[in-house]
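Worked Example 4.2. Consider the chain below.
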Amino acid sequence: MYFVEVILPLSLSKTFTYRISEAEYLYIQPGMRIAVPFGKSKIYTSLAAEVHRNNPTLYDAKEIHQILDEKPIVNSLQIQHWQWIASYYMCAIGDVFRSALPSALLLENETIISQKQDVFIDESLLTDEEFLVFEALQQQSSLKIDDISAILNKKTIFPIIQSLLDKNVLVLHEEMNETYKPKLIRYVRLHIKYSSSESLNELLETLKNAAKQREIVLSYFQLSASFKKPITVKHLVETANSTSSIVKALVDKEIFEEYYLQEDRVNFDKNKKENQLQLSQAQQKAFDELQQNFETKEVNLLHGVTSSGKTEIYIKLIESYLASEKQVLYLLPEIALTTQLVTRLTSYFGNKVAVFHSKYNNNERVEVWKQVLENSEKAQVVIGARSALFLPFSNLGLIIVDEEHEQTFKQVDPSPRYHARDASIVLANFQKAKVVLGSATPSIETYYNAQSGKYGLVEISERYGKVQMPEIQLVDLKDKYFRKKMNGHFSDDLIESITETISLGEQVILFQNRRGFSPVVECMTCGHVPQCKQCDVSLTYHKHKNQLRCHYCGYSIANPTNCHNCSSVDLTTKGFGTEQIQQELITLFPNAKVGRMDQDTTRGKFGFEKIIDSFKNREFDILVGTQMLAKGLDFDNVSLVGIMNADNMLYHPDFRAFERSYQMMTQVAGRSGRSEKRGKVVIQTYNPNHNTIQQVTNNDYSGMYKEQLYERSIYNYPPYFRMIKFTLKHRDFDKLKEGSMWLYQVMQQNLSIPVLGPEEPPISRIRNEYIRTIMIKIPQSTPLITTKKTIQKILNSFETVAQYRAIKIAVNVDF
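Applying the procedure from the previous section yields the following structure tokens:
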């Protein structure tokens, strides 16, 4: 008997055993996709983990459906890394598999299929079974995989669907035209019979009465003389100022031959420039130190002030790894950042750069996946957000984690709740690669590791080109409101600075970490505030759409004209978001062009590009935005940055609030004055003497680090303690209360470490589910693996208690 262990794309923490034949046993390799039946009638795309000959004891192994790949699409190092993520972050291996693979590689029973529109289909090329499916799609617009199974009266239908997808007859419904299909470009060349010069003269003679055709042939000669590359039909038609129908006539006459070449959807060759990079003295010193440190330390922290030119150092490092034919992974916290960085890197490396993140469609992601798997020239350097970590690297030499302090590197929902920075260090360890963590404001844990000698540390204390750090001016809002020197949410100092900057033709960035117009609409008569029906939060007012929206579940209502509680018409808005700042700016500066960058304005695939390019091309004078602006964007004409209210970040109920506020303000301030002229930063606050705000003003990272480290050692927080948070959710308040108490008590009895909770978080109901949290703090001296095993046993026993089975538990490690 022969068996295969497979990983299913479901939230299941173990692999499952299926029966296979001897031939399949010899053929299957770990990392191939296999369609398998699971449950009563469902079929899933699973992944082979290993083949063996041990009969499962608890159940009869079913047979597999069929093998979907000829060679593995996932390598063994990846599977090893996924297993580490599953065990360290206490999640199911199935969750890791599902989030790692592009969805186009995971066909499922629930997948909806429809016919491709506007494509001529030659029915004679279809087999009988394919024709039945095609015919059924003429009758109805879409089918589920189960429906196709019923039509053909057979279970093994994945190969038929795959074949119809390849023949360009079907599309998957999740992204209507998204099943992977290479993009083909039409080229022409002269027919082989015209290879000698005599035959060429004859050809021109025969065409002397067909002026337009002769024109195209002459243009072709011209192009092939000046270009040493294949000639596309499009290029030829444009050069000859003609039409493609004339090219077709020449093809019919057998003067031209047409042929197709596959082209990647995303092509960066045109960006490549021949440019030599000259590092400044400080950069060169840092580069040399990094190279030196790599001999003894696998991980190095590059701590350079904002605008110190860290990207140039990364480019030099990438050059050295590409020279030794290694792959490089460059991780960024925000998709917005990839936009700028892609332009910078492709100007050095051209088409060696590939990009991988969620704004790319399925086709493009599958293309990058295959290029990385084949170690192709086109994906030597991969730039991406955290999901790029899952690509099938086989020859990785270097991982760069830029802006490593960013909280967006931590996945919050859904599972796996991994931290891309930490997972990439483990991946580098498996791949025998090196890691550079870069930041102007490193996270306290990383800096602690560097100080204690676990990581190497390289510091740059000056900006590139010896540009001065920006001048920071604090504005006391309490005093300004008291002296009536405020106009809306702008102090007279900020208005004056903006006026001066714009009059000099320079640009301004304003930071307000809240989108929408205002977070609260309040009735002045009875004090009623409209709340979300499904969550315990007030609705945010969006003026542009004239509606109130919940930022947690998306629930929205039209903006009320009178109070829902007492019918009074005296309603007012409290607080302010980016939309309101934009409105006020239009009133204050009617001649200035104002742009806004937040989640509402960057929805489409190219949302970020449009706004960043417009700002870079100086189409906007002022850009208002949320924390997207705080990441390493580089605008050379910005000389003023305004922080509208520094306090709302400081008072978050979170032990990292001060650290995050320092990082956010320093990073936003760092967008100012990045070329010759010294920049200026205006910070509006009610609390100008607050330690953190003073540390930002004095650019005192080590002061902030020491103060936070001292507090964390007293209150048992990272880096001295590891933290795990359990979030329990259920629609029934009493059942949740009872279940969370049961879990808390069992944990307290079985663990000899602090267990805190169960408590209601500040927002205690989202999407009609009540929430409770329990937190565990694990000292560095306690063995982590045994503690996690105990916790896992407790969670498993919790699931066996019948009345608590419906309670959902999310485990968040190192949050």
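Residues 183-263 form one domain. The first strand starts at residue 2 and ends at 7. Compare this with Example 4.1 before moving on.
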